[in-house]
Design a protein that fits this description.
This protein is an alpha+beta fold. The chain is about 40% helix and about 15% strand. It is built from 15 helices and 15 strands. The strands form three sheets. Strands 3, 4, 5, 7, 8, 9 and 10 form a seven-stranded antiparallel sheet that branches. It has a five-stranded antiparallel sheet with strand order 12-11-15-14-13. The longest helix has about 60 residues.
Length: about 500
C-alpha cells in the first residue's frame, strides 16, 4: 500500500507488513524484496512479492512457526494479516516461549510434544515408571544399563552447561578486543588529523625528563597501584630517542597536544557503563587505576618519538620505540594488527608486566607514512578481568591461542614479573601441548577434547574469537563432570 501511494489508508497493519519483512531479513540474512533496479524493487513491493524464506546456511533450518508468522504478517491483503501489531508481537512471544502460535495452530502430535516440554517432571516420572516396570520384567542387567545411560545424560548436561559458560565468556572477550580495535581506529584518525591539519596549540608538552625533574612534572602526577609508577592522567609523556633535540620535534608535539582530551575520553568510554556519569574525581580514579578496556595508548613517530598515555617517567634512557615489538608490527602496513606479547620496558628493578599490543599505521592523504598508533592491555588484567571463570568449579587453566595453536596468553603468568633484557622483540610463542586441540584450531573449529594434563584427566574447551581469529581455551578437571579421576584419556570430541 505504500508502494501504491495509498498513504491516506496506511494503518498499523502497514507497519506490521514492514515488521514482517524485517523479521524475514533477520532470520534469512538476505534482502526480502530485491530487484536489479529501484523500479523493479518498487514493482516487487507493489505486488507483495518476496524472496523465498531460506536459511543463510544450507545446514540449518528455519522453524516453520517463524515462517508462518512472517507469511501472515506480510500477506498482500491487509485483511489477511494480523489484526494489529500487538497480535504479531504476541505470536512472536508465543514462539519464543515455545507455545503454539495463532498463525499455525498445532496438530495433536505437536500439542502433546509441547505438553511434555512444559511438564518435564511429570514426563520424567512417567518414564521412570516405565523403566521400573521394565526392570521388574527383564532383570538387573537392564537396570544397570539404564543407570549408565542416565549417568551419561547427566554428564552431557554438565558438559553442555560448561560449554555454554565458556561460549558466553569467549563472546565477552571478543567484545573487549572489538572495543580496543574501535578505540585504536579512533585514535589513529584523530592523530592523523592533528599531524596533517592541526595547528600548534598552547597545550603544555611534557617530556620524559620533565616527569623526573621536581617542579617540571604535570600537577596531577599521582602514584598508581596499577602502573606501579607516578602517572599523569591529564597529560601524555613525550619520549625522544638519543640525539633528537626537543626543539626540533616540539612543533609536531604541539599539534598533538589537544589529543590529551581524546586519550582521556577514549579510556573512559571503553569502561563499562555508567562511566560517563562519574564525577571528575571518579573519572580520574578510573583512568589512574585501569577501569577501562585498555592500559596504554600511544603514538610512535618515525623520528623516534613515543607519545604515551597515561604519562609517566619510567622509560629507560636507551629506549628506542622504533625497535620495540609494537612498531614493526604495523609500520608501513595497512590494517589493525595484534602482536605477540612482550615484556614492558621500564626501569622497575622488580621486573615488568607482560603486555599485549594492537597497532595500526597512520598515513596522510598522499599516502605518506606518519607513524604508528597502538593500544595495549596488561596480561594481569586480561587474565583476571576477561578470562577468569570463577563461577565454574574445577577450572585448572585458561589461555588465548592464535590460529596456529600457539599460546598467546596463559593464566599461569598471573601476577608474575619478568626481567626484560631485550625489549626489541616479542616473546617466542609455544604450541599448546595437546595435538588434538591444535589440530582442531588449525582446522578453524571450536570444540572440546578430553586429555591428560599434569597427570590429571581434564576437559579442554576452546572457542574462536571472531574479531581477531584467536581462541579462548579453558581446562577443567574431568572429575567435576564424570566423577572419574582415572588417568586414561577418553575419546576426543570436536
Amino acid at each position: 500500500e505504500q508502494a501504491a501511494g495509498e498513504n491516506q489508508d496506511l494503518d498499523g497493519r502497514s507497519d506490521e507488513y514492514s515488521l514482517g519483512i524485517m523479521l524475514q531479513e533477520l532470520v534469512t540474512l538476505r534482502r526480502a524484496v530485491t530487484g536489479t533496479t529501484a523500479v523493479e524493487v518498487l514493482a516487487h513491493a507493489l505486488a507483495g512479492r518476496r524472496e523465498p524464506i531460506v536459511p543463510p546456511d544450507a545446514r540449518e533450518r528455519i522453524p516453520r512457526e517463524l515462517v508462518a508468522i512472517i507469511d501472515k504478517a506480510t500477506r498482500r491483503s491487509r485483511d489477511q494479516r494480523y489484526a494489529s501489531v500487538g497480535e504479531l508481537a504476541d505470536d512472536v512471544r508465543r514462539y519464543l516461549r515455545g507455545d503454539a502460535i495463532r498463525a499455525r495452530p498445532d496438530n495433536a502430535l505437536q500439542r502433546m510434544t509441547r505438553w511434555i516440554a512444559r511438564h518435564r517432571e511429570a514426563s520424567l516420572l512417567a518414564f521412570l515408571l516405565v523403566l521400573l516396570l521394565s526392570v521388574l520384567a527383564i532383570g538387573w542387567e537392564v537396570v544397570q544399563r539404564k543407570s549408565q545411560e542416565l549417568a551419561g545424560v547427566r554428564q552431557q548436561q554438565k558438559i553442555g552447561a560448561f560449554l555454554s559458560v565458556v561460549a558466553r565468556r569467549s563472546h565477552q572477550i571478543d567484545n573487549r578486543f572489538l572495543v580496543l580495535q574501535e578505540a585504536l581506529e579512533g585514535l589513529a584518525t584523530a592523530a592523523t588529523w592533528a599531524l596533517t591539519r592541526g595547528a600548534p596549540s598552547e597545550e603544555n608538552v611534557y617530556f620524559h625528563e620533565d616527569y623526573n625533574a621536581p617542579g617540571r612534572a604535570p600537577a596531577d602526577l599521582t602514584r598508581s597501584e596499577l602502573y606501579r609508577w607516578d602517572v599523569s592522567t591529564d597529560y601524555p609523556v613525550a619520549y625522544c630517542v638519543a640525539g633528537l633535540e626537543h626543539e626540533a620535534i616540539l612543533p609536531t608535539l604541539r599539534r598533538l597536544g589537544p589529543l590529551r582530551h581524546h586519550f582521556q575520553r577514549m579510556f573512559i568510554d571503553s569502561a563499562p557503563p555508567p562511566s560517563r556519569a562519574l564525577t571528575l574525581d571518579q573519572q580520574r580514579g578510573l583512568l589512574r587505576e585501569g577501569g577501562g578496556a585498555m592500559d596504554y595508548a600511544y603514538l610512535v613517530l618515525p623520528e623516534g618519538v613515543l607519545y604515551l598515555y597515561p604519562g609517566m617517567g619510567c622509560t629507560p634512557d636507551d629506549y628506542d620505540p622504533r625497535v620495540a615489538p609494537f612498531y614493526p608490527l604495523a609500520a608501513h602496513k595497512h590494517g589493525k594488527f595484534w602482536g605477540n606479547p612482550y615484556i614492558d620496558s621500564s626501569e622497575d628493578v622488580t621486573g615488568d608486566d607482560l603486555v599485549l599490543p594492537c597497532a595500526t599505521s597512520m598515513y596522510d592523504e598522499q599516502g605518506k607514512f606518519l607513524g604508528v598508533a597502538a593500544v595495549e592491555m596488561m596480561f594481569n588484567r586480561i587474565i583476571s578481568q576477561c578470562m577468569a571463570l570463577t563461577e565454574v568449579p574445577g577450572v585448572r587453566a585458561m589461555a588465548l591461542l592464535d590460529p596456529d595453536g600457539h599460546i598467546i596468553v596463559d593464566s599461569s603468568t598471573l601476577n608474575k614479573r619478568f626481567k626484560n633484557s631485550d625489549f626489541a622483540r616479542g616473546l617466542d610463542l609455544v604450541p599448546y601441548p595437546v595435538p588434538e586441540v591444535v589440530a582442531g584450531i588449525r582446522a578453524g573449529r571450536s570444540g572440546h577434547q578430553d586429555a591428560i594434563r599434569d597427570r590429571e584427566k581434564r576437559l579442554i574447551v576452546y572457542f574462536r574469537l571472531e574479531t581477531i581469529g584467536w581462541y579462548y581455551l579453558v581446562e577443567a578437571s574431568a572429575a567435576d563432570f564424570t566423577g572419574d579421576s582415572d588417568t586414561a584419556a577418553p575419546p576426543s570430541r570436536d
